[in-house]
What does this fold into?
Amino acid sequence: MKVRFSLNGKEISVDVDSLRRLLDVIREDLGLTAIKEGCGEGECGACSVLIDGKIVNSCLVPIAQVGGAQVLTPEGLKGTPRGKCIVDGFTEAGSVQCGFCTPGMLMAAEAILTKNPNPTEAEIREGLSGNLCRCTGYDMIVRGIEIAAEKGEGLW
It folds into this structure.
């Protein structure tokens, strides 16, 4: 099946089995490896992407569902002023240790700040609820998003 969609702002077309997971198509066919497979069950957030601005676990999305959609991966976010602001916030707060969860956390941060450019701590924690981290502890990740919100005023 041919599936056409926008990936990181670029129109693409892939000819794949319609039931293949978006995660596998992005990693294996398109060579974008920032997202990871953690649990494969939609519970860890390591494979998070934005589809039409909404955060989703790409391990649960059949490629056929993204036809005509806009998909944003960490690679696409990284090259934007918003992505740089989030990365800088995470860096300043020491939000990263092993890095496995970081791409999903960055995508969650983008979704949180797009929804509300000045979120409360409770709103940040709720927005991160679908992402697991075993190294850092969530306080530094929350602080990273707070810093991004402060420094990125006007970006979202």
About this structure: The chain has six helices and five strands.
